[in-house]
């Protein structure tokens, strides 16, 4: 190795600033090609370790180097006089490297190849900046400027590209043919002969060569030689190796000679087949008598999972293309395959009609077409070819399309497939080994080399701007921290860090990456715009530790995101992995991942190297609103399109559920809530959920959802409501995808579907549009389409989260819902079913499913409620809609929610059951649930009792959800007879203990109560009765369970008594008179026809997602204040609130949010509350006072001072004195 530095003369030169903006035209640049530029007049040679200490112009391609280090005063500038390359282990930049500039785009070709095997050396700067190996690194003070051609990164189809079939140009395909089903057990070669004019198969057969069976091997060798020698002139011959074609006891010499005679006009040793080894993949295509068109491909067996070979031949005169492939699977031999395809050139060279002008895409450029089906693996590559007849929005490609790529907007759901550019004129790539080197340390997981190159930038960089670059085989799956593009603990890179032109990475492509595409780690203010990330291991666009802020991801696309091993969470890879809400995500596409498309998952505090740096305080991210989420797309993801749940744990895993509850002041636990707005999501063809989002006050606006087992579900992490507004949900669209073939191995039967289905492993999985879960959730202005059941699976627009074991809301509601189908005949507006069908459980909490129909737009009846069709829930006014399998009721329902304080070791509660007084034989059971919950009818016409299966718990709280003024509920609780109890409540009155409650003598007295501070204790039956009331009516805009007032509640503590005295049903209903007759319905409902209510969605939904209407920032402004809410209290200092929203206009494209208050409060009801007087305890009896003879009397007194009546409160009712007779002699 030779160490080369710039000559000492160059060190005396001073760089000057000139008007010319092209860096390679600046003066004082010494040419790399001139020996005089180098110390000792010796240019760097093979293996040189180069140090640059002044300004150098790279104007030639040097031999492979060891490395380049650019010192603080050094500069390396790429010349535009030619196409130059560098091959070396690393480039370390303390000074500056330029390939073009912002004002002088680099338009030649530049190629940097990073080489090396892991474990040879380590580069660490300043003792802390670990660049390690195979990198381009920017050290503190360094600058990297790469400004390549600014080509369009990606666009969308405006016309569907069909897969090639017999209907549009496929002439022959081996897969599925009679040949493929005959003798396919034979390892060896498969050989076809095709007619050169028509493309029709003249013959095809398997030949047994890859194993040894004396007679069969000899016979097939002879048969193959005879075939090859007897082929007529001009015929097309295709050969492919199947499984293996090499065995030491099988002599391939006659076959090799026959192939060379056929394909190379008897030129000996000309065929690559002579070099084939055991397990190699090999193909050949030729035309008899025309050796010039012979094409061979040999792919060596390595340590990878498999190897493939491919060859194609196009004949222009007959307009035919022939293609042959060989795939050898090294893990599972049965997955090895061959294929032979013949197609017309019109099918093989389709013209893509695209949304944007694509004149910057030129012949030879590589493209990738995203999957538009459930299977992310349906992404396909293509090569641009010359096209004289193409318009500026068209490009012709060579592409063997195995799948359809959809190109339409369906009812405001933009399902036009993306087409992305892979090729760039500046290429940075890692050179890979043929197999996995043992030094990688991960060969047991990856049977191929995953030690690619990487770009790394650290704290203190002067600047980094990269645009128009192609990064291939970058990233290192071998160790954490080495990614294709990596901003590593750079802190503030925007104006806060005094960067006037903040760093960016834009208009670039990262593909076939071994670890992510772009990583932002402990860095704030970076802009990532219009990039392509294709075929990456692990999270692709990766915000790492949870401290990253003010970064902008705009207009990027990611597709084919695969599972990785760097972090535990990489087993659930997301194309966008966002760990901090203070970032901007807009105009991006997640077009195919092995798990999630977009994953918002926050830690409690930043972890890893970001911990303790002050980026975020503990729990701050859990209470911070999203900075921006606008116009993002996710489709073709294996699990969910957008998933917002779980937490990042210090172990790097992500698990549990999110505690996300945004607040206006995130660090103030008493702060009012803040709204998070998910604007214009477009989510389709995600298998399990298009969207699953957990949090507090979240609003999804103008969303477009289609084609998923479950369109959308909200989960909550606090008591705030969630909203879906102005949106479109389609169950099954005209984008039918690749029809699913389901094979049932248990019954040896199959089902051929006419479209792709989301859960291909369980074809009976129902299709749902919106799933009610947790709550309160409110749907308004939503249009549904495409929810028709078939013989294989059910479908319904509105349903309930399956296997729901969470408590749910009684006040979730719908309003202004529209359907484009007639219920029953053309679809189902609502769908539930029995547990006998897949996906519909019979779990205790799931039985409490319900929602309210405010305006009748779903059920046909305004102010109705949908409940489970079970006797406990339904009333005489309800009717069961058979196709929905739920009941529609005129009643208002609430819920009794019971929370147990003394939890079981497994966090469960005791088994409690409820009885409706008019149906005492019907019991609704909650087995070991904590909380337990029962759906109840409100308004006083129905009442309930609660009992226990195992024991009476010592302490528990009962809350009445959905209670409002006039909608009250009376219920009793079974407790040990004659037990000593304590009671308390926080609403509707604050009652600290038993002394603050009023005991009444009958149920009639209790039901007359409108205050909520009374109870009736039947010690004989063991039933303690309460009446839950509210002082305020629920307003139209109320979104919490009980409006502005806290829900009524009572805490019961059993201080003494037999806790096995748990079931009071026989005493209540057999002996005593707690039975009641069901009231006559005031508004009985009946089945009615429900026709389509809107044939199109109108303005609902996201609509077209590209081109982006504008990227100019729009600053938000507040709209008008809303009305004041009801006072939270009727006296003694209540609070009223009013809100205004930052939506006139909305902040968009990075515009600032509104400044000022979004919530105002004011005091109300300041007068003292009236205090009714209460009797003290009676005094002791006086001594007996003699009246006559031995007769006398005693008396005792009490005072109206517990409390003393005040503020116009009532004086105590009753006598203040009691007298009884006594005897005294």
From TrEMBL:
Xref: Pfam families: CEMIP_beta-hel, CEMIP_X, G8, TSP_1
Signal peptide: 1-20
Subcellular location: Cell membrane
Record has Disulfide bond as a keyword: yes
Domain G8: from-to ranges: 36-159
Stated name of the protein: G8 domain-containing protein
GO molecular function, one term: hydrolase activity, acting on glycosyl bonds
Region Disordered, annotated ranges: 1073-1110
Family: Belongs to the CEMIP family.
């Amino acid at each position: 190795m030779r160490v080369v530095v710039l000559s000492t003369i160059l060190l005396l030169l001073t760089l000057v600033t000139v008007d010319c903006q092209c860096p390679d035209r600046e003066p004082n640049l010494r040419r790399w090609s001139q020996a005089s530029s180098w110390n000792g007049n010796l240019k760097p040679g093979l293996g040189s370790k180069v140090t640059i200490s002044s300004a150098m112009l790279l104007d030639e391609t040097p031999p492979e180097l060891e490395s380049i280090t650019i010192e603080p005063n050094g500069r390396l500038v790429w010349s535009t006089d030619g196409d130059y390359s560098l091959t070396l282990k690393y480039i370390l930049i303390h000074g500056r490297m330029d390939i073009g500039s912002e004002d002088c785009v680099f338009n030649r070709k530049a190629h940097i190849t990073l080489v090396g095997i892991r474990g040879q050396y380590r580069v660490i700067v300043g003792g802390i900046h670990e660049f390690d190996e195979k990198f381009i690194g920017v050290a503190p003070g360094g600058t990297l400027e790469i400004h390549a051609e600014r080509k369009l990164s990606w666009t969308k189809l405006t016309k569907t590209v069909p897969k090639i079939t017999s209907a549009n140009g496929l002439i022959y395909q081996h897969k599925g043919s009679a040949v493929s089903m005959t003798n396919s057990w034979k390892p060896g070669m498969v050989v076809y002969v095709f007619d050169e004019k028509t493309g029709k198969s003249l013959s095809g057969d398997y030949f047994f060569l890859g194993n040894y069976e004396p007679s069969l091997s000899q016979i097939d060798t002879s048969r193959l030689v005879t075939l090859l020698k007897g082929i007529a002139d001009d015929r097309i011959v295709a050969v492919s190796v199947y499984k293996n074609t090499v065995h030491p006891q099988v002599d391939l010499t006659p076959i090799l000679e026959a192939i060379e005679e056929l394909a190379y006009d008897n030129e000996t040793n000309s065929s690559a087949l002579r070099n084939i080894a055991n397990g190699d993949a090999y193909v050949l295509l030729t035309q008899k008598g025309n050796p010039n068109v012979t094409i061979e491909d040999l792919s060596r067996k390595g340590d990878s999972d498999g190897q493939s070979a491919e060859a194609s031949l196009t004949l222009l005169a007959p307009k035919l293309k022939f293609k042959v492939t060989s795939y050898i699977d090294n893990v599972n031999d049965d997955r090895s395959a061959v294929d032979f395809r013949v197609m017309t050139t019109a099918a093989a060279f389709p013209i893509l009609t695209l949304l944007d002008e694509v004149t910057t895409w030129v012949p030879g450029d590589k493209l990738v077409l995203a999957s538009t089906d459930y299977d992310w693996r349906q992404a396909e590559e293509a090569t641009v070819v010359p096209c004289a007849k193409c318009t500026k929005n068209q490009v012709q490609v060579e592409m063997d399309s195995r799948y359809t790529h959809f190109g339409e907007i369906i009812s405001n759901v933009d399902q036009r497939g993306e087409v992305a550019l892979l090729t760039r004129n500046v290429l940075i790539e890692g050179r890979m080994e043929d197999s996995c080197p043992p030094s990688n340390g991960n060969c047991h997981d990856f049977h191929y080399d995953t030690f690619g190159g990487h770009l790394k930038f650290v704290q203190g960089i002067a600047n980094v701007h990269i645009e128009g670059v192609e990064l291939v085989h970058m990233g290192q799956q071998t160790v954490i921290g080495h990614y294709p593009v990596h901003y590593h603990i750079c802190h503030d890179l925007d104006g806060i860090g005094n960067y006037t032109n903040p760093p960016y990475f834009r208009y670039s492509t990262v593909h076939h990456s071994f670890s992510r595409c772009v990583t932002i780690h402990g860095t704030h203010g970076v802009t990532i715009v219009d990039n392509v990330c294709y075929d990456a291991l692990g999270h692709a666009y990766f915000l790492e530790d949870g401290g990253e802020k003010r970064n902008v991801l705009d207009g990027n696309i990611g597709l084919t995101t695969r599972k990785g091993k760097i972090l535990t969470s990489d087993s659930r890879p997301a194309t966008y992995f966002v760990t901090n809400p203070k970032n901007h995500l807009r105009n991006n596409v997640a077009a195919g991942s092995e798990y999630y498309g977009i994953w918002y998952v926050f830690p409690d505090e930043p972890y890893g190297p970001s911990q303790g740096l002050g980026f975020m305080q503990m729990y701050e991210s859990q209470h911070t609103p999203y900075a921006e989420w606008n116009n993002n797309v996710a489709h073709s993801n294996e699990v969910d399109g957008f998933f917002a749940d779980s937490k990042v744990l210090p172990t790097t895993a992500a698990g549990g559920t999110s505690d996300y509850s945004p607040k206006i002041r995130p660090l103030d636990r008493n702060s009012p809530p803040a709204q998070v707005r998910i604007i214009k999501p477009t989510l389709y063809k995600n298998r399990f959920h298009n969207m699953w989002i957990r949090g507090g006050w979240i609003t999804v606006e103008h969303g477009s959802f289609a084609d998923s087992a479950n369109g959308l579900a909200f989960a909550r992490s606090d008591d705030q409501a969630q909203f879906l507004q102005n949106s479109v949900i389609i169950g099954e669209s005209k984008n039918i995808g690749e029809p699913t073939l389901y094979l049932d191995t248990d019954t040896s039967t199959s089902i051929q579907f006419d479209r792709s289905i989301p859960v291909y492993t369980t074809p009976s999985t129902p299709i749902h549009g919106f799933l009610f879960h947790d709550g309160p959730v409110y749907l308004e202005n939503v249009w549904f389409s495409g929810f028709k059941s078939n013989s294989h699976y059910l479908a319904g627009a509105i349903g309930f989260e399956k296997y729901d074991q969470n408590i749910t809301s009684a006040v979730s509601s719908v309003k202004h819902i529209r359907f484009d189908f007639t219920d029953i005949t053309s679809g189902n507006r609502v769908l539930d079913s029995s547990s006998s069908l897949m996906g519909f459980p019979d779990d205790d909490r799931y039985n409490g499913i319900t929602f309210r129909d405010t305006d009748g737009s779903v059920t046909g009846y305004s102010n109705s409620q949908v409940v489970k069709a079970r006797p406990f829930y339904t009333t005489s006014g309800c009717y069961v809609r058979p196709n929905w399998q739920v009941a529609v009721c005129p009643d208002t329902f609430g819920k009794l929610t019971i929370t147990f304080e003394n939890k079981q070791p497994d966090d469960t509660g005791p088994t409690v059951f409820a009885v409706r007084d008019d149906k005492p034989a019907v019991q609704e059971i909650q087995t070991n649930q904590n909380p337990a919950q029962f759906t109840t009818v409100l308004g006083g016409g129905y009442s309930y009792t609660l009992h226990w299966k195992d024991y009476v718990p010592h302490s528990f709280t009962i809350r009445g959800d959905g209670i409002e003024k006039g909608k009250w509920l009376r219920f009793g609780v079974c407790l040990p007879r004659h037990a000593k109890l304590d009671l308390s409540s926080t609403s509707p009155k604050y009652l600290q203990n038993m002394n603050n409650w009023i005991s009444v003598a009958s149920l009639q007295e209790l039901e007359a109560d409108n205050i909520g501070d009374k109870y009736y204790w039947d010690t004989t039956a063991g039933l303690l009765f309460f009446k839950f009331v509210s002082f305020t009516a629920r307003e139209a805009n109320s979104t919490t369970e009980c409006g502005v007032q806290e829900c009524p509640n009572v805490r019961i503590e059993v201080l003494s008594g037999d806790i096995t005295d748990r079931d009071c049903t026989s005493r209540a209903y057999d002996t005593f008179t707690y039975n009641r007759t069901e009231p006559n319905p005031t508004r009985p409902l009946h089945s009615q026809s429900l026709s389509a209510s809107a044939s199109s969605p109108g303005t609902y939904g996201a609509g077209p997602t590209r081109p982006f209407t504008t990227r100019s920032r729009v600053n938000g402004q507040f709209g008008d204040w809303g009305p004041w809410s009801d006072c939270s209290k009727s006296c003694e200092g209540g609070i009223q609130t009013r809100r205004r929203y930052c939506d006139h206009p909305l902040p968009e494209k990075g515009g600032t949010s509104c400044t000022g208050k979004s919530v105002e409060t004011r005091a109300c009801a300041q007068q003292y509350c009236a205090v009714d007087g209460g009797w003290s305890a009676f005094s002791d009896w006086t001594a007996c006072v003699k009246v006559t003879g031995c007769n006398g009397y005693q008396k005792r007194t009490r005072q109206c001072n517990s409390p003393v009546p005040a503020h116009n409160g009532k004086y105590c009712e009753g006598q203040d004195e009691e007298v009884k007779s006594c005897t005294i002699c």
